[in-house]
């Protein structure tokens, strides 16, 4: 919901670091380091190390934004880089809630986790296939002048909102299950929003 407004702000904030890195570190290396940080964040959450988990989560998000900026200013953008970035994003968005549920396993937590993963799956299908259709129609990210590798039709839950929710998981561990359930509901709303958008624009 807020990604469009904040993407240029993020780009400006990361530009000095990206310029310093230049060609010394490849975007793919940064992407892989982001994935490692996200995986370690899940392990920290599993072990109840909330502050460490939060720090690693923010490191993951920073590196996830930095790899694209480095790729753009160094002329190293590639389909492989964009693909790897999305795959590792899905990895991180999966393992962190899983690790946090394992911290204090319960039937309620596992049911909510299953619900959220189901909504993730439906929403991913809703926007990834829609993005593929828009590419085929020459209405993709490049044609729209977007900074992402694929166009992502807006929804109530996007990257910025995910950062907020996952941060709250670590900051307010006692509210983790209700927050996780709320995230699942909002992800479902996002899937419906994209379905409605597709019904209006793809006929």
Structure write-up:
The chain has helices at residues 3-21, 27-46, 50-74, 79-103, 107-136, 141-144, 159-171, 176-201. The protein has 203 residues and is mainly alpha-helical. The chain has one domain (3-201): Four Helix Bundle (Hemerythrin (Met), subunit A), CATH 1.20.120. α1 packs across α3, α3 runs antiparallel to α7 and α4 packs antiparallel against α5 (107-136).
What's the mean pLDDT score? 88
Examine the secondary-structure arrangement and name the CATH architecture: Up-down Bundle
| Count of alpha and pi helical runs | 8
Number of structural domains? 1
Largest beta-sheet characterization:
none
Feature tags:
8 helices, 203 residues, mainly alpha, globular
SSE blueprint and pairings:
Blueprint: H1 3-21, H2 27-46, H3 50-74, H4 79-103, H5 107-136, H6 141-144, H7 159-171, H8 176-201
Helix pairs in contact: 1-3, 2-3, 2-4, 3-7, 4-5, 5-8, 7-8
Summarize the structure.
By secondary structure, the chain is mainly alpha-helical.
């Amino acid at each position: 919901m807020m990604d469009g407004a904040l993407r240029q702000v993020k780009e400006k904030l990361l530009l000095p670091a990206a310029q310093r890195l230049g060609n010394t570190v490849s975007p793919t290396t940064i992407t892989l380091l982001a994935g490692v940080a996200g995986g370690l964040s899940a392990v920290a959450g599993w072990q109840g190390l909330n502050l460490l988990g939060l720090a690693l989560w923010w490191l993951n998000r920073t590196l996830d934004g930095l790899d694209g900026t480095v790729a753009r200013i160094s002329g190293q953008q590639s389909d492989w880089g964009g693909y790897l970035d999305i795959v590792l994003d899905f990895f991180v968005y999966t393992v962190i809630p899983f690790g946090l549920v394992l911290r204090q396993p319960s039937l309620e937590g596992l049911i909510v986790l299953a619900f959220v993963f189901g909504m993730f799956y439906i929403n991913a299908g809703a926007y990834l296939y829609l993005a593929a259709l828009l590419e085929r129609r020459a209405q993709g990210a490049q044609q729209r002048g977007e900074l992402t590798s694929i166009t992502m039709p807006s929804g109530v839950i996007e990257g910025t909102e995910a950062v907020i929710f996952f941060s709250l998981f670590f900051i307010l561990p006692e509210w983790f299950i209700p927050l996780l359930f709320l995230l699942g509901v909002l992800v479902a709303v996002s899937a419906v929003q994209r379905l409605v958008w597709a019904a209006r624009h793809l006929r």
